[in-house]
Amino acid sequence: MPGEVPKIPQPRDHKAQVCIWADIDVTQAETLMNATSMAAVRSILADQFMLEDHDETSSSSVLLDLYYYTVQFALDNGFNKEQLSAFFSILKKTHEVCNETPFGNLEQTYSYFKEMVLCHAVKRPPWSINLFSPDQVKIITEYILNTYFRHYKLYKYVFTPMVRLDLSISYAGMPETPVPSEAGDVNGEQSVEGEQSEEQLNKEEEQQIEEPPREETPAQKELRKLITSQLNDEISRLRTSLGEQIQLNDEVLQKKLASVDGGGAKSGKNSGKAKKK
After folding, report:
1. From the first residue on, what is the mean pLDDT of each consecutive set of 10 residues in the chain (277 residues)?
2. Is 241 exposed, middle or buried (0-12, 13-18, 19+ CB in 10 A)?
3. Nearest Cα residue to 77 out of 123, 152, 144
4. Alpha carbons 75 and 63: distance in angstroms, whole number
5. Which of 40, 46, 164, 258 has minimal Cβ neighbours within 10 Å of its Cβ?
6. DSSP conformation letters of 21-52
7. What's residue 227's pLDDT?
8. What's the pTM value of the predicted model, to 2 decimals?
9. d(CA 161, CA 51)
10. Strand, helix or coil at 103?
11. Strand, helix or coil at 165?
């Protein structure tokens, strides 16, 4: 439905499955193992997973490096075709679980990675197969912990799309505002609205200038007189009250000054009598 807000995936648990030939088939594994140089390996991986824009796009460049070093690790440790394909898919699917949600899901991703390794290390068909030896499981775990999970937040930052909140308010009984299809439409509508508003203002100003002042009716004149007389009475009452308040304050102040002067005179007389004695 148009206007429906897409839901953001929440962190969730995943069930691990055997993934031989899931991302790299037999022919591709042979091609990678028979490549004459690591540059050829990068070219093969870029063609296989459509990462030809790795020189212009940072996410494609990081993803190609991740795939390249994964294949290089498998070749350096003598993995066969099945082990190469399974190890590559383990890391690739772990990376996909990491980036399926913008929220933190380190625990779910690491739990999924451990189950994926166990699916290819324990013989329990059809749920798991004995593809990697205990020594290979150890070096695989150490490699992915020291390379991928040590830089987990960096991979999360590069491959997680930015979440933006677009807030819209709808009122009951009000028609919905049509959403502009292109930026040009928005600019065009804004310019048209601006021109219309300027025209309206000009028309209102002309009307205000052209319209002569209207004469008041007898009822309006009588109402104006009543309001004016009421205001005058209220102003005179306030003035009288304010004058009385000022006079009262002045009398109180004069009394205080008189009492202070009288007390000083008495103290002066008493001191004179004391000297005569």
Report:
1. 66 91 94 92 94 90 95 95 96 94 91 94 88 95 95 90 72 71 53 59 60 68 79 81 81 78 55 47
2. exposed
3. 144
4. 19
5. 164
6. TSSS-HHHHHHHHT-SSHHHHHHHHHHHTT-G
7. 80
8. 0.58
9. 18
10. coil
11. coil
* CA gyration radius, the chain: 45
Question: For position 34, what pLDDT does the model report?
Answer: 93
- For 120, other C-beta atoms within 10 Å of its C-beta total 24
Q: Which two tokens stand for residue 277?
A: 């004695």
Q: How far is CA 91 from CA 13, 41, 106, 247, in A?
A: 17, 17, 14, 95
Residue 160, classified by CB atoms within 10 Å of its CB into exposed (0-12), middle (13-18) or buried (19+), is middle
- CA–CA distance, 93 with 82 (Å, rounded to integer): 16
At 33, the amino acid letter reads M
CB of 109 within 8 A of CB of 97? yes
* Alpha carbon separation from 198 to 202, 208, 209, 229 (Å, rounded): 6, 15, 17, 43
